[in-house]
C-alpha cells in the first residue's frame, strides 16, 4: 500500500512539474491570475477536482 502511495505521489509531482518546466512564463502568469481569484472560487475548484479524482479512482478500483 505504501509503495502505491509513493508511486501516486511521484506521478503527481511529475505532472505538476511539466507546465513550469515547459512554459515558465505562462505558469508565472497563471499563478498571478490565481492570486486574484477569491477564496470561494478556489475552494469550489479544489472541491470539484477532489470529486473528479474520487470518481475516477472509484471507477478504476
Summarize this structure briefly.
With 61 residues, this protein is mainly α. It is built from 3 helices and no strands.
Describe this structure in words.
By secondary structure, this protein is an all-alpha fold. The protein has a domain at 25-61. 89% of the residues lie in helices and 0% in strands. The chain contains three helices and no strands. The protein has helices at 2-22, 24-34, 39-60. Helix 1 crosses helix 2 (24-34). The longest helix is centred in the last third of the chain and has 22 residues, at 39-60. The protein starts with a helix and ends with a helix. The mean pLDDT is 92. This is Membrane protein. The chain crosses the membrane at residues 6-23, 44-60. It comes from Endozoicomonas numazuensis.
Amino acid at each position: 500500500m505504501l509503495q502505491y502511495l509513493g508511486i501516486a505521489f511521484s506521478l503527481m509531482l511529475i505532472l505538476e512539474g511539466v507546465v513550469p518546466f515547459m512554459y515558465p512564463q505562462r505558469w508565472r502568469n497563471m499563478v498571478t491570475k490565481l492570486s486574484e481569484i477569491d477564496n470561494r472560487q478556489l475552494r469550489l475548484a479544489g472541491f470539484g477536482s477532489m470529486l473528479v479524482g474520487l470518481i475516477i479512482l472509484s471507477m478504476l478500483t
